């Protein structure tokens, strides 16, 4: 069994080049004005059935009042903004590895889509999405009529 000590300061145990992707990402983000990929929370999108979807966003340490979900036009926005009390509590930390930066995720929703509910459980924000396509817009098959009349043989 190998003994591994826990250092108060993060070391270079993985590789000296481990942070290179994050640096390049931040550089491109500064040039384009987009949020860096590393500052956005991870998410999963799952199709439950023909009309239900589930969006899971990883938000460890976030509280319900710090998160906002809104739909504007055909866009679903999920954002997080730290509370004032937490931003003042930055003293005394030796190392903070859990990222708590403000974020905003945007998703383009298909037509006739609604967010049915959302809940925060164990650091995962679950957003249920429902797509209801009206009957007049659903695909339907058109029967082809046979207009030829059968000729009967008379004897």
From TrEMBL:
Chaperone found in the keyword field: yes
Keyword entries, A-Z: Chaperone, Stress response
Domain SHSP: 34-147
Family: Belongs to the small heat shock protein (HSP20) family.
Identification of the protein by name: Molecular chaperone IbpA
Species for this entry: Kosakonia arachidis
């Amino acid at each position: 069994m190998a003994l591994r000590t826990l250092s108060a300061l993060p070391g270079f145990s993985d590789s000296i080049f481990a942070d290179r992707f994050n640096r390049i990402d931040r550089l491109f983000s500064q040039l384009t004005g987009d949020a860096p990929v590393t500052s956005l929370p991870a998410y999963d999108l799952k199709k439950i059935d023909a009309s239900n979807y589930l969006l899971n966003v990883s938000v460890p340490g976030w509280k319900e009042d710090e998160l906002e979900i809104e739909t504007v036009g055909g866009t679903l926005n999920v954002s997080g903004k730290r509370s004032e009390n937490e931003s003042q509590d930055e003293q005394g930390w030796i190392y903070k590895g859990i990222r708590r930066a403000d974020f905003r995720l945007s998703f383009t929703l298909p037509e006739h889509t609604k967010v049915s509910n959302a809940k925060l459980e164990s650091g995962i924000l679950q957003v249920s999405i429902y797509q209801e396509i009206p009957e007049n817009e659903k695909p339907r098959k058109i029967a082809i009529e046979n207009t030829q009349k059968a000729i009967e043989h008379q004897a």
